[in-house]
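re: that chain from earlier
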Amino acid sequence: MLAVEESRRRREAFQRIYSWLKQRSKMIHYDRGGFLIHSKIIAELHPEWQLERIEVTEFTVHYGKYSETYLRVLGMSEEGTNVNITIRDRSIFDKIALGLGLTKDISSGDPIFDREHKVKSGTPKLALKLLKDKQFREYVSVIRKLRKFEIRGGKHLHFVAECNYDTSSAVNSILAMEKAAEILAPEVRMKPVRVEKAKPIALKVEPRKVISSEVMLKLRKEFENLLIFVSKIKFEPSKENFSRVIVTPLLGEVDFIQYVIAEKLKVKALDNLEKTVSKAITVQIRPKDLKAITSQQVISIEEIKDLFDIWCEDREVLRKISEAYILLEALSKIKELSIFHIKLQGSTMEIYLECNLNPENIRKTYEVIKEAAWWTKFYLII
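^ sequence. v structure.
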């Protein structure tokens, strides 16, 4: 009974978030989700907003037998500058460290805000500029159970907030993002980041396994369904007989995603970064059992991790990827995933995976690529 009531409460909260965003959007899509499928809202805001795009979804964190579902709000502004800021609620240990004077966090000068929130930044001057704004602090202060509020700059301004599952927390997360984009606008104008986009190489015509017209029709339909979530889709050599599909994501997570239609579905995303990484990083994830990964109903992050062999030479990156619960959960839903990797080298990010040529995998692989790009930019590049 409690689970049913909680589910009803969450549906009502999500509906209210949608209603609030609908009034401020020129385009909005609402996926109501269902059993094992997360609800999602994607919105393009009216042009008077500094913040241009918003995505609201949900995720569940498992702590043994106990679990809690949170909201995640992603935001993007089309133009960016170099900035990175992380704000989260203080834990009891953070508060003890603060009381003992052991913390080196950035202080806003507002004792109530500083007591409740931990702030880290690689761009402290810009962080202070935000924190000195009373309206920004007020928006952040009323976000309940704030796991994190992060801003990452570059060729776009990217925002992410993870918080309690209620309408007010979602709305104030969006308002805090909008206020931050407004405050950072002069910096964006004075110090913009310009990066030439990565482009797919010319299509090579290669012999391939004959794919039935029925499967091709289903694949095309699934790609067309992606138009709700992306800004552009290109079928090559033609929409009627394609061997490659190029997708441009709506929120600018990567420059492009390339789907090659062969015996397997081969998906590659490339993004030209605004700076060169200090050292090359490769993360590889393979399923331990190709069949079991799609038949087992996973419950906790530990069970999800147990489905994969995860490899990276860098121990700290390995620890981080092993805790990327949303990414690993998304990977666990791909039918017959055979390989997944993330590579950072020079100023290029590459994400690649191979899986079964199943129409259901089109949307699932898109979600994985998008999540991997967000995760990489927030945790490996800053």
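The two ends are 44 Å apart (CA to CA).
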